[in-house]
UniProtKB/TrEMBL annotation, chains A, B, C:
<dbReference type="GO" id="GO:0005741">
    <property type="term" value="C:mitochondrial outer membrane"/>
</dbReference>
<keyword id="KW-0007">Acetylation</keyword>
<keyword id="KW-0496">Mitochondrion</keyword>
<comment type="subunit">
    <text>Homotrimer; The trimer binds only one molecule of glutathione.</text>
</comment>
<comment type="similarity">
    <text>Belongs to the MAPEG family.</text>
</comment>
<keyword id="KW-1133">Transmembrane helix</keyword>
<dbReference type="GO" id="GO:0005789">
    <property type="term" value="C:endoplasmic reticulum membrane"/>
</dbReference>
<keyword id="KW-0256">Endoplasmic reticulum</keyword>
<keyword id="KW-1000">Mitochondrion outer membrane</keyword>
<dbReference type="InterPro" id="IPR040162">
    <property type="entry name" value="MGST1-like"/>
</dbReference>
<keyword id="KW-0812">Transmembrane</keyword>
<dbReference type="InterPro" id="IPR001129">
    <property type="entry name" value="Membr-assoc_MAPEG"/>
</dbReference>
<comment type="function">
    <text>Conjugation of reduced glutathione to a wide number of exogenous and endogenous hydrophobic electrophiles.</text>
</comment>
<protein>
    <recommendedName>
        <fullName>Microsomal glutathione S-transferase 1</fullName>
        <ecNumber>2.5.1.18</ecNumber>
    </recommendedName>
</protein>
<dbReference type="Pfam" id="PF01124">
    <property type="entry name" value="MAPEG"/>
</dbReference>
<keyword id="KW-0472">Membrane</keyword>
<dbReference type="GO" id="GO:0004364">
    <property type="term" value="F:glutathione transferase activity"/>
</dbReference>
Length: 164, 164, 164
């Protein structure tokens, strides 16, 4: 197996693509907080009861538009950290650079599309389902490749050593 | 202290165990989305109002079975990313490989058990409390070991240099 | 660009500060679970209906104090994993060590302050807004610096090579 110093070198294309895409996703998720704040202001829905006067709101009940942005944000929380966990592992499996860069950028675009069709300008299904599914499939592929590389291959090597 | 290139080498047992366990946890969390989708379909509860017709549902009110899976998923979000953050740090503290591998695999099994007793087939307490507590204790141990290794030891060394 | 083995060495000040701050934030987030448990016990609000008898509670309806701690915890989930993602990237951009250590520690203190003013002892706004905003700004700065270093600089270098 390749040493980490080689695989994760800052000159390594795969790793640079991964770090860049992760940072773009960080900014995208920060955008969700801004979108939520904007919806809270428009509809006078406070994040916490003590903000009621601050927003000149009349009630602490939520509003469908606020809930929608919150659901999109929660979906990010369910999907992006696990992409990060699987994506680092996958970068270490010595993948084909073109495939890896394509997967990382497709994931990033799919999540941006998910936010747009879910929370910015609602597009009828299956737009949301497809953008979510693309990211979901990529994360799953990366996690399975990582397990195969780090666990299964090691186990097979161990068994072969033991047999001989 | 050991250099990172040695500690995080892809031949390093501790690191391989960490990456494998993280990827298994990624797949497990992806399973939560599938479980939620299944419960939504059974009970006709849409994720978002516009999915109502898609699921042939009659109401956007939630159902206890959907809520249960969602709670289990949220508990994952509260626990697994912090395990990842503490687990990487711990891998860098040059731990005893057997102990490290045992902690990573116990954590992974505890979280799988947590999902089963909480969301798949409800087992009376304290099953859920124990499986959660085991993971919680392991995360806390790893975080404290990491702080001791990276912060306290450095501070003590600094002070000793300064005294002499 | 500097090689990763140099940048991420365990003797590297920036990296040690990052790992230490991350682990402190892990312990802080674990504290949220304990705070939630305490509020659940005080007000007899179970995490799941089957815990009702365990807590000697009378209803599964939530209580404002429980909701408050949960909101603070959810705010952590929205902010701390993305700090981790941006913070690793930033550590690899060969930053000025004093600036990097200052940013990591300020972020950590801001999040601890956020928890205190939000969930432990409620302080009127803008205390919560400021502590949240400081962390938000730091995460954004780190993500943008990472993109500039790993993506833009590489693109510019590529274009310059192509022109000559």
């Amino acid at each position: 197996m390749a040493g980490l110093s080689k695989v994760l070198d800052t000159d390594n294309t795969v790793f640079c693509a991964f770090v860049t895409c992760s940072s773009i996703l960080v900014l995208k998720m920060m955008g969700m907080s801004i979108l939520t704040g904007r919806q809270r202001k428009i509809h006078g829905v406070p994040a916490s009861p003590e903000d009621l006067t601050l927003l000149k709101g009349k009630t602490i009940e939520s509003h469908p538009d606020v809930d929608r942005v919150r659901r999109a944000h929660l979906n990010d929380l369910e999907n992006i950290p696990i992409f990060y966990m699987a994506g680092i592992g996958y970068a270490l499996t010595d993948p084909n650079p073109s495939v890896a860069v394509a997967l990382y950028s497709t994931y990033t675009l799919a999540r941006i599309a998910h936010t747009i069709v879910y929370a910015v300008h609602v597009v009828p299904q299956p737009a949301r389902g497809i953008s979510w599914g693309v990211g979901f499939a990529i994360t799953g592929y990366m996690a399975m490749r990582t397990i195969k590389y780090f666990c299964c291959d090691s186990c097979i090597a161990l068994c072969q050593n033991w047999v001989h």
